[in-house]
Amino acid sequence: MLGAGRLRGLGTRAAPLWPGRAGSRGLGARIRARGVSTSWSPVGAAFNVKPQGRRLDLFGERRGLFGVPELSAPEGFRVAQENALRKADLLVQRVCSMAPGPQTVLIFDELSDSLCRVADLADFVKIAHPEPAFREAAEEACTSIGTAVEKLNTNVELYRSLQKLLADKKLVDSLDPETRRVAELFMFDFEISGIHLDKEKRKRAVDLNVKILDLSNTFLMGTNFPNKIEKHLLPEHIHQNFVVAGNHVIVDGLHAESPDDLVREAAYKIFLHPNAGQLRCLEELLSNRDLLAKLVGYCTYSHRALQGTLAQSPETVMQFLEKLSDKLSERTIRDFEMIRGMKMKLNPQNSELMPWDPPYYSGVIRAERYNIEPSLYCPFFSLGACMEGLNTLFGRLLGITLYAEQPAKGEVWCEGVRKLAVVHESEGLLGYIYCDFFQRAGKPHQDCHFTIRGGRLKEDGDYQLPVVVLMLNLPHPSRNLPTLLTPGMMENLFHEMGHAMHSMLGRTRYQHVTGTRCPTDFAEVPSILMEYFANDHRVVSQFARHYQTGQSLPKNMVSRLCESKKVGAAADMQLQVFYAALDQIYHGKHPLTASTTDILRETQEKFYGLPYVPNTAWQLRFSHLVGYGAKYYSYLMSRAVASMVWKECFRRDPFNRTAGERYRREMLAHGGGKEPMLMVQGMLQKCPSIDDFVSALVSDLDPDFETFLMDSE
Ligand SMILES: [Zn+2]
């Protein structure tokens, strides 16, 4: 029912946690910032202007994190977690004693909601809260709810209540598609614990799950572990690029951007030097995953992992990767020739192209051909301008406005976190996005979207509004300077907002499938689609204004940026195809036909093109094998769908309201409650083939004719 490690949600509280507070600041007013000559809309101002002395709210009621009353102090986590567990017990009793029907699914979802609302919130707080006491309390809550979930997953009585429903064909046929899908998803989560097997096999499944979890953690730690080498084995002049400790040089990464060929080569060979323990760990992880999949009834781990996804089967994934590889190969060869040419120009004595070269030399070519120095762009991308851009875009496409609200005392975990109410022109408030955008010590570096609370239809007919956090790592504004984003940061902001809008606009009956809780290969579609908007000059020009002069970003600067991204992009994509194929083979038929290193060499030769370097084992650094096991292809496939949606529906007019409404209705509204291929079909109004997926990805690499015309003007 509730996936290991990733909880899905159950339950409501008597009092509404999020009473709608209408008062958004300065609605409709133009705010004039001190020292800034440009005027911004309210949402732009909220992000560009430093709050002028936070309103001192001495007498206001302290409301607790995310408005959850218990969470005004770390101890509150214990209360919240006890309440959730108590409620879960009642719901288990209720569902086990009633006749099977649609209500069964509703209660399962409520059970999941009551646990997830604490666990998801705690999952976020344990990594993001600046105060250790809060982080520790949250960590404890995660552990205790995790244990409870494990117990529920092996609760035979609970399982039978769902099985009775799914075994009754007449009942199943009477369910609406979303309810049926959610019932099947809960069942799918149960079955990985082997609950449907006899006692002996069930015990075996539980043991395998524990072992896999252990191996996953050990492997993940090993992917980051530095390697060391005796100092005298490396030329002295490159020691300074690494950490030197006593007689050793320590290498903790690939140094892929270093301009010195020798530094990159040394880093590659040392960092990727195989570690026997890590190798054993990976092999054991893969074979245990295979055993578990077979035990619960699948022929490979990949077959299990891909059930219910857009791709649906490992065969489709391999077909997709092979076709993509074929279609890319000529472009990749051209990319490699171009990169080799640059290497020869800069380093004539040693111009053989090696796997540690492409990222660096592509960067050199990009900088030489296109004048895309980030400092030229940043002044046009103040955070406020970008937020205004998003607000305008969502307004025109979907009739949605973002309002900056003043959070209550204790509601946010850190000064500088902004709260956005997402409001539809006729439907009203849809949900809340907390924007934790600025750098601080100890904050994770990755940009990320967190679901804090999923949307769902409650028993009383009200809709539980979704709540999410977007976490970025932007520089702080100062008194005279708003936060300025590089083009890459701007694109990331759009990407993460794509996830947030998926969460806000999902209107699923069940929180188990709210917003981004959908198959992995579909989850990145809404966010990658936003990248297409972020790279379109018609979209960019309506918000990118110089923060001092108000001047718009010239069109050719936008085009130059887009074209620069295509430098080496075929070779890049080819590398991703190689990784995805490797992941498929590792999680395919067992026993594997050769060692993981031999498979890496063969797959690299077939799917990439640059030679395998003896005595290296890149797979031991491939951390995504843990989280994405058999689904690493997802990013490529999501990109293919986003590209098709962009071209078919938005490229002609990126502000087209009809297309926006269709996008909301056919894709976003369903979260994970509908089969992904049906959503894609509904959006594109045709059933795309694998060839369509491949063409969409490859055609994005073609240079844009218009840009060349413009540059020659
Ligand atoms: Zn994403």
Automatic annotation (TrEMBL):
Its cofactor is Zn(2+). One of its GO terms (biological process) is protein processing involved in protein targeting to mitochondrion. InterPro entries: M3A_MIP, MetalloPept_cat_dom_sf, Neurolysin/TOP_dom2, Pept_M3A_M3B, Pept_M3A_M3B_dom. The keyword Magnesium applies. GO terms for molecular function: metal ion binding; metalloendopeptidase activity. It holds the Pfam family Peptidase_M3. One of its GO terms (cellular component) is mitochondrial matrix. Its EC number is 3.4.24.59. It catalyses: Release of an N-terminal octapeptide as second stage of processing of some proteins imported into the mitochondrion. Keywords: Acetylation, Calcium, Cobalt, Hydrolase, Iron, Magnesium, Manganese, Metal-binding, Metalloprotease, Mitochondrion, Protease, Transit peptide, Zinc. Transmembrane segments: none annotated. Binds 1 zinc ion. It is an enzyme of class 3 (hydrolase). Belongs to the peptidase M3 family. PANTHER family: MITOCHONDRIAL INTERMEDIATE PEPTIDASE, PROTEASE M3 THIMET OLIGOPEPTIDASE-RELATED. Cleaves proteins, imported into the mitochondrion, to their mature size. This is Mitochondrial intermediate peptidase. The gene is MIPEP.
